Amino acid sequence: MVYEKEKLVLIIHPSSPLTHLETFELIAKTAQGLEEILAAELEQLGAQVTHKGNRSVSFMADKTLMYLANLHLRTAFRLMLPINTFNAINPDELYRNALKTPWEDYFSPNQTFAVQFTINSPHFTHSQYAALKLKDAIADRFRKQYNNVRPSVNTHNPDFLIQLHIHNTRCTLLIDSSGETLHKRGYRTQQVAAPLNEVLAAGLVLLSGWEGNTPFFDPMCGSGTIAIEAALYQRNIAPGLFRPQFGFQKWRNFDATLWKSLQSDALKNSRPSPPNATIYAADVLQHALKIAITNAQNAGLPDISFFTADFVAQPRVIKEKTGTLITNPPYGERLAPAELNMFYKAIGDKLKKNYTGFNAWILSSNLEALKHIGLHPYKKITLYNGPLACKFLQFKMY
User: Fold this and answer.
1) Is residue 208 within 8 Å of 340, Cβ to Cβ?
2) Distance of CA 349 to the CA centre of its chain
3) Range of the domain at 379
4) Which residue has the higher pLDDT, 137 or 12?
5) 111 and 216 assigned to the same domain
6) Is the domain of 144 the same as that of 30?
7) 10 Å Cβ neighbour count for 262?
8) What CA–CA distances, in Å, run from 127 to 91, 123, 273?
9) What is the pLDDT of residues 227-274, one digit of tens each?
10) Is the domain of 32 the same as that of 140?
């Protein structure tokens, strides 16, 4: 992989200019349980992984790799660049250190910004006040540099997103290269109630070990996200191709020529689906299926085979004798416990009777209902669907 000469800077000292250092460390955020998968994705892009944390993976990058990671990663929510780290025991000390950070190297006074924060410290008991002091420091820095002109705060659609992380006395300032969270690919314009986000759906596909060269089936597809993410992976389509914009495109050192070149390469590297590896998606609800079909069309995937079917009531609904099945059945919000247990038992019975030869995976947060499937899981993985702790269970149907 050939990288360009001009590189982005990691600010190690407040006086460091923006374009002198060749490499820097980025932090990729993900869902809990997907850290290893994300690290593998990064290594496939050529990144040197430096640390795997809780819901995060750190890696060394240059500007090209930062662009590539935003464009290609399937299991990352955000890619953040740490620009300053210091100790502070109160908001005033936070303000003084933030004031020394050369924000003007990254964005201009005619742009907007917003601050998001994660604070776990006995010294900062009022999180919003700490964030306010950071905003004041940024504004005051610009006032001094630009003759009393400062950028405005825009919490809904900022040009520049800043993250404040405080743990005990350790404060880290980061800038978000992604902008809107990367799970918002851009193809899902409609959704059913309680859908899986795209990052988790892609994570399920990658965790399953499916390589894209055998049939794939989601029998309770809802908005179609699992099947769509499977198809994007199978066809080597970069998920970032659907997004209109990333945060780094508004940075002062954005290289538009490089970015267009990387987008063009990503388009060229997509491939058709292999023969005998159809992706199927079904749902009992016709309105859900219509949403799924629309989302697939938005993603440029008209050849996913969608159809209406009741998985537990009907016999085998696809002709293939082997393949991978991944599904996210209802967790129980709209069913009584007894009904849900019977439903999960019916899922297990259906797998045993009609889907021998399949590698089946089920994601659910209802641990009691999962017991009623009546099959011994070959593998158990703990994942989180938002705040819900889930089990992703593998059943090998011999």
Assistant:
1) no
2) 34
3) 198-236+272-396
4) 137
5) no
6) yes
7) 19
8) 10, 10, 49
9) 999 999 999 999 999 999 999 999 988 999 999 999 999 999 999 988
10) yes
Residue 372: per-residue pLDDT: 96
Question: 390 lies in a domain?
Answer: yes
Task: Please state, rounded to an integer, the average pLDDT across all residues of the chain.
Answer: 91
**Residues 130 and 214 grouped into a single domain:** no
The b-or-e profile of 107-146 (16+ CB within 10 A means b, else e) is bebebbbbbebebebebbeeeeebbebbbebbbebbeeee
Q: Are residues 212 and 359 in the same domain?
A: yes
| % pLDDT > 90, the chain | 83
Rounded Cα distance, 331 and 167, in Å: 35
Same domain, 218 and 140: no
CB 97 within 8 A of CB 88: yes
Q: Return the closest-CA partner of residue 198 out of 299, 130, 55.
A: 299
Q: For 47-101, how does the pLDDT look when each residue is reduced to its tens digit (9 = 90+)?
A: 999 999 999 999 999 999 999 999 999 999 999 999 999 999 999 999 999 999 9
Residue 331 CB partners (closer than 8 Å, separation 6+): 194, 364, 365, 366, 369, 388
Residue 22's pLDDT is what?
73
Average pLDDT over residues 354-360: 95
Q: What CATH code is carried by the domain that includes residue 163?
A: 3.30.2130.30
CATH code: domain of residue 297: 3.40.50.150
Q: Do 226 and 317 fall within a single domain?
A: yes
Query: What does the alpha-carbon distance between residue 230 and residue 183 come to, in Å, rounded to a whole number?
Result: 14
Contact of 216 with 323, CB cutoff 8 Å: yes
207-233 core/surface letters (b: 16 or more CB in 10 A; e: else): bbebebebbbbbbbbbbbbbbbbbbbb
Asked whether residue 15 is domain-assigned, the answer is no
Looking at residues 304-312, what average pLDDT do you find? 95
pLDDT, tens digit, for every residue of 4-21?
A: 333 333 333 333 333 434
Domain count, the chain: 2
Q: How many Å apart are CA 249 and CA 395, to the nearest integer?
A: 44
What is the number of other CB atoms lying within 10 angstroms of the CB of residue 382? Answer: 10
Q: Is residue 96 part of a domain?
A: yes
Ramachandran angles phi, psi of 98, nearest 5°? -65, -30
What's the one-letter identity of residue 392?
F
Q: Is the pTM of this model over 0.85?
A: yes
Whether residues 162 and 213 share a domain: the answer is: no
Residue 245 falls within a domain, yes or no?
A: no
- Residue 194 is predicted with a pLDDT of 66
